[in-house]
Protein 1
Amino acid sequence: MSRGLILLVAALVVYVSPDVQGTAHLSFSNNTEVNITRDGCGDTKLCVATPDGCDPAGNTNCLFTSVTTSSQAPSGTELSVELRGNSTGYIALGLTLNATEGTTMLFICAQNNGSFLFRTRQNNNTDNELTPTERIVREIRGVVNGSVIKCEFDIPNVTDTTLSVLLGVGSLNGSVFGAFDNRNSGLLNLTQPVSNVPTTAAPTTAAPTTAAPTTAAPTTAANTTMAANTTATTMGTTTPNDSGAVQPHAVLLLSVLALCVMLRA
Ligand SMILES: *[C@@H]1O[C@H](CO)[C@@H](O)[C@H](O)[C@H]1NC(C)=O
Ligand SMILES: *[C@@H]1O[C@H](CO)[C@@H](O)[C@H](O)[C@H]1NC(C)=O
Ligand SMILES: *[C@@H]1O[C@H](CO)[C@@H](O)[C@H](O)[C@H]1NC(C)=O
Ligand SMILES: *[C@@H]1O[C@H](CO)[C@@H](O)[C@H](O)[C@H]1NC(C)=O
Ligand SMILES: *[C@@H]1O[C@H](CO)[C@@H](O)[C@H](O)[C@H]1NC(C)=O
Ligand SMILES: *[C@@H]1O[C@H](CO)[C@@H](O)[C@H](O)[C@H]1NC(C)=O
Ligand SMILES: *[C@@H]1O[C@H](CO)[C@@H](O)[C@H](O)[C@H]1NC(C)=O
Ligand SMILES: *[C@@H]1O[C@H](CO)[C@@H](O)[C@H](O)[C@H]1NC(C)=O
Ligand SMILES: *[C@@H]1O[C@H](CO)[C@@H](O)[C@H](O)[C@H]1NC(C)=O
Ligand SMILES: *[C@@H]1O[C@H](CO)[C@@H](O)[C@H](O)[C@H]1NC(C)=O
Ligand SMILES: *[C@@H]1O[C@H](CO)[C@@H](O)[C@H](O)[C@H]1NC(C)=O
Ligand SMILES: *[C@@H]1O[C@H](CO)[C@@H](O)[C@H](O)[C@H]1NC(C)=O
């Protein structure tokens, strides 16, 4: 198949799939290297991880994100994000003003049978419904190895001064992203870019292993004990689907989408 035909097919698929948003707001880096470490945590970058303090460079089941703030341009701050975790569906960073009300902007790194894809979604913090949304994201790069997804990306024009950073996972069935399961969070203070506090080593937080059969309902207000700059509150419930197998059907469809994304890069 010629490249042009592949793009055409992909475009048609995008057109006929109501749940699939456009991807024109996403731009990919031509550098595919992804190197995520704890270097700079608590010093140059805010780190949030589950289990607390786990090493994203290791081979363990470590869900990790870091956020670095750069240039305070007039249009807002640019955030550079690293994200790493085990999932056969997706891992995501969420930015929100208040995790118990309003909405969360989700930045999703996902895999479909080993192919990397990136999407943005809006999460309703009240009913946990996801809606497609087109937030500009740049310099996206990601790799998938087995159940491990790693990605990096930049979010320009962030104008809020204080944001809760949420870290979580979810399933991907065909083109449908399952509910965002929030596993940990931190507070990002954009007025003091270089000195954000890392995740607190709070082993008292409930381990995110208690599987609940119900969907992640708005159980977010589990424990809102907030340290001044950092929280390590475990919110939401885990879904038993996290490490389940990727659903085989519609994989081909999304592979074409992923190919389209790759060709656009
Ligand atoms: C990425 O592209 C820029 C210019 O668009 C180029 O300067 C740079 O060398 C490229 N990097 C890689 C890794 O290809
Ligand atoms: C990854 O980053 C660490 C520290 O920043 C560095 O020591 C290491 O060499 C890097 N690895 C690769 C493959 O670039
Ligand atoms: C997470 O990934 C590591 C490899 O980095 C693997 O050893 C481990 O079994 C994975 N855990 C799950 C739950 O898939
Ligand atoms: C950021 O905001 C400025 C001013 O509003 C605008 O000119 C620029 O295009 C925006 N950049 C992005 C990536 O949205
Ligand atoms: C978040 O919203 C709840 C109400 O939904 C409110 O009680 C709480 O004070 C808010 N938290 C912050 C930090 O504004
Ligand atoms: C979030 O969901 C609640 C309950 O379904 C609804 O009342 C509210 O309008 C939704 N908010 C947004 C921003 O969609
Ligand atoms: C993928 O993961 C396996 C096991 O964790 C490792 O041996 C292998 O080198 C990894 N492959 C790449 C390309 O990183
Ligand atoms: C995936 O979606 C299909 C319908 O599109 C449904 O039949 C199937 O049960 C779903 N699988 C899971 C694991 O939710
Ligand atoms: C953010 O940092 C500024 C400057 O250090 C401080 O004045 C402000 O209170 C901080 N905000 C929060 C919510 O911690
Ligand atoms: C929240 O956590 C604090 C400290 O771990 C604990 O004292 C408090 O009882 C918890 N509150 C709830 C509602 O679980
Ligand atoms: C939060 O940040 C402020 C400003 O840097 C600092 O004074 C305060 O001690 C920090 N609080 C915690 C709990 O780290
Ligand atoms: C997933 O990918 C592997 C190798 O990349 C392939 O053998 C397998 O058939 C794929 N599964 C589906 C459902 O497409």
Protein 2
Amino acid sequence: MPLSYAPLQSVIDSTTVNSSVELSLLRLDLFSPLLSGNKYFKLKYNLQRAKKMGFKQIISFGGQYSNHIHALAQAGKETGLATIGLIRGEQQHVLNETLSDAVNCGMTLRFVSRSEYRQRNIPIYIESLKAEYPDAYFIPEGGSNILGVKGCMEIVDHINFHLKGDYDFIVLACGTAATLAGIAAATPEKKIIGFSVLKNATYLENSVSGYLKKMAVTGCNNWQILHGYHCGGYAKINVELANFIHRFVTYHEIPIEPVYTGKMLYGLYQILARGEIPVGSKVVAVHTGGLQGLRGMENLLARKLSSTM
Ligand SMILES: *Cc1c(COP(=O)(O)O)cnc(C)c1O
């Protein structure tokens, strides 16, 4: 059972003090023990829709460390829906922890070549899969569709439960930016800053505008996406990021991973240090979860760290 509301934790250190900003972290990683982070919200209405329409199976896409695949497998186990994961790349000799968790929840894995995986959002390809799996409800990669965005609007309820609207900024990591679109739609009066975790993902702004348009939200200019903090690209780690995460985790004793929340905080601390957030602002950073994926990255993080010593 998820908690009623995700905890909100105050974060105080030399950067927040020097920049005179009140920072707090919405711990979506602690909200639902099984469906970590934002993926709970992205799946919620998709699962409801699938059940209501009488589907018995759900199919979706993800990489080999995908938080979405991990959450979907858990959700399938809890709701009694069969799940099929179309997984990018070749099957490794031994399944990693993410995928073995998924299999243990009953998910069927099908590995697809990288070139086939690239077609995951192309309608003709989806149609051919639908013909192959006529009984399945399709969810795009990352749970990013309009029902996913609708679910993410509820993240704001968790902030307001604690702060009753008394804050200025919400900051979060962006993969597809569906989560950002939901949050922006739910809080037109706040400022939203997304940190892209991908390199050159200049299409993200269009995706957000597209989601907002589909939800009939107009005049929503409260959000921006910063593109300078990807550290080399998706799931790439550089020495600065590894150092930042090590310092943050040691000082605050809050677990973060380097693919999403770690990168977002790395970016946020740079803009705080440069004084780009007005003095006196109240900033809520969203910890979007994803800690299951850390299991595949701890060695890499440690190597990056030690290369600076
Ligand atoms: C999927 C994911 C995101 C990205 O969410 P989008 O809606 O695709 O932007 C952020 N953080 C974590 C931990 C994730 O698993």
